[in-house]
Amino acid sequence: MTQTKAEFEARLRQIGAERYHDKHPFHHLLHSGGCTPDQVRAWVINRYYYQSRIPMKDAAFMSRVEDPALRRAWRSRIEDHDGTTENEGGIARWLRLADAVGLDRDYVASAEGVLPATRFAVDAYVRFVRDETLLEAVAASLTELFAPKIHAQRIEGLLANYAFADDSSLSYFKKRLTEAPKDVAFGLSSVLDRADTLEKQDAAAKALIFKTDVLWSQLDALHSAYVDPARIPPGAWQPGTYLAPGMAHAS
Ligand SMILES: O=C(O)c1cc(C(=O)O)c2c(n1)C(=O)C(=O)c1cc(C(=O)O)[nH]c1-2
């Protein structure tokens, strides 16, 4: 039987409670100050790839939407990341974080040293949004329901534990605290409205699980490559390389 909206929303939230990447050991290491400078750099390099693809997946989504009102509601997501004349945008803010941790920002932006599994996971998300139903595409974005909590934990944990952390380097996360709630409020009500059969509810729940897997896999890749025993795949970033000028001897 089709679930009521309240039951269905509870089901979606339960998926986050069980599977969101705030539970991943790499995040515990990062937020508690347990990462070396190079482990933080590896996270910044790899996570940049996710950031860079988010507006591309939103553009892929919009290219399929026939309803002007839905496109209008969605397009601020692209501006939030790519920026506008008044707002520098999330990608530029992420590169400020890259500067702060002592990386060469051009190298980070080139995405050359990204781990293969990160690339596979993120590209799979972009393809999912391009190929699956609009309902599933919106449902996959609902991991953002759980993101403000992890962003707040991250700001607190990084400020307490790392010298690079300050208002400028963490501006990406501060800004998301105000941007994400408008996106999820819209995305959640749209999924609750559109999933009006059990079949559609099941598909939306599966899409959200897929997305939690996309996020979890990225951290598995990081943990495997850069946390002891480190197994860095060929071609991926090597610790100590591509540092910003003046950082050559920093560890
Ligand atoms: O730091 C995080 O844990 C985290 C997670 C997620 C997410 O849950 O997908 C996003 C973000 N951050 C984020 O900053 C962001 O802009 C974003 C957009 C989306 C999306 O799927 O459209 N997820 C996320």
Helix content: 55-70%
Find the CATH topology.
Heme Oxygenase, Chain A
Instruction: Give average pLDDT, whole number.
Output: 96
Helix/strand order:
HHHHHHHHHHHH
What bound compounds does this protein have?
pyrroloquinoline quinone
CATH 4th-level superfamily: Heme oxygenase-like
- End-to-end distance: 58 Å
Oligomer: single chain
CATH architecture: Up-down Bundle
SSE diagram, text form:
Blueprint: H1 5-19, H2 25-31, H3 37-62, H4 68-74, H5 76-82, H6 90-100, H7 105-110, H8 116-131, H9 134-140, H10 147-161, H11 171-194, H12 198-226
Bound molecules: pyrroloquinoline quinone.
Pyrroloquinoline quinone binds at residues 54, 141, 143-144, 147, 150-151, 176, 215.
Walk me through this protein's architecture.
The protein is mainly α and 251 residues long. The chain has a single domain, classed as Heme oxygenase-like (Heme Oxygenase, Chain A), CATH 1.20.910.10. It is 68% helix and 0% strand. The chain contains twelve helices and no strands. Helix 9 packs antiparallel against helix 11. The radius of gyration is 18 Å and the shape is globular. The site of pyrroloquinoline quinone has 9 residues, from helix 10.
